[in-house]
């Protein structure tokens, strides 16, 4: 938002993913939408700050204005960049939604895309967590 941090990344087949988990909703005040990129192509310049938000993930944000930059998984270091960093969300389409059973009543994302429940999402990203959280 303020321009202090710039992010460059390559995306050969970009698509969008949306997450309704409690942490993403608190971090963004709604749904967190990220765009797929080639992780080894990501270059971040400027005062990016990282917050370890759980045992298995961290979140990046601008150290000046607080704008959301990414959500990253600890086990593999993959950074899921905020779609808002790119003009027109990189021209990508929504292909997957996480924690659909946690989506607030006030909004819903439409379209024909994969919709994963909390249990399905946890099984995908943190199978050791199970029903503990």
Question: How are the elements arranged and paired?
Answer:
Layout: E1 6-8, E2 16-19, H1 22-28, E3 32-35, E4 43-45, E5 48-54, E6 57-62, E7 68-73, E8 79-82, E9 94-98, E10 114-115, H2 118-125
Parallel strand pairs: 2-9, 9-10
Antiparallel strand pairs: 1-4, 2-3, 3-8, 5-6, 6-7, 7-8
Descriptive account of the structure:
The protein is mostly beta strands. It has a single domain, classed as Metal Binding Protein, Guanine Nucleotide Exchange Factor, Chain A (Beta Complex), CATH 2.170.150.70. 11% of the residues lie in helices and 33% in strands. It has helices at 22-28, 118-125, and strands spanning 6-8, 16-19, 32-35, 43-45, 48-54, 57-62, 68-73, 79-82, 94-98, 114-115. Strands 5-6-7-8-3-2-9-10 form an 8-stranded mixed sheet. The longest helix is centred in the last third of the chain and has 8 residues, at 118-125. It starts with 5 loop residues before the first strand and ends in an 8-residue tail after the last helix. The mean pLDDT is 92.
- Got a strand count? 10
Report mean pLDDT, rounded to a whole number: 92
Strand content: 25-35%
Gross morphology: globular
Key phrases:
mainly beta; globular; Metal Binding Protein, Guanine Nucleotide Exchange Factor, Chain A; two-stranded antiparallel ribbon; 2 helices; single chain; eight-stranded mixed beta sheet; 133 residues
Can you summarize this structure?
The protein is mainly beta and 133 residues long. 11% of the residues lie in helices and 33% in strands. It contains two helices and ten strands.
């Amino acid at each position: 938002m303020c321009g202090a941090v710039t992010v460059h990344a390559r995306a050969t087949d970009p698509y969008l993913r949306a997450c309704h988990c409690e942490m993403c909703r608190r971090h963004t005040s709604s749904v967190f939408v990220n765009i797929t990129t080639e992780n080894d192509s990501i270059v971040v310049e400027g005062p990016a700050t990282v917050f370890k938000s759980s045992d298995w993930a961290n979140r990046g944000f601008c150290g000046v204005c607080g704008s959301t930059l990414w959500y990253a998984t600890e086990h593999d270091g993959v950074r899921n960049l905020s779609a808002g960093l790119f003009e027109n969300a990189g021209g990508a389409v929504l292909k997957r939604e996480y924690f659909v059973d946690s989506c607030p009543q006030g909004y819903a994302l439409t379209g024909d895309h994969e919709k994963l429940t909390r249990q399905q999402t946890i099984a995908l990203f943190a199978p050791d967590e199970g029903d503990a959280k």
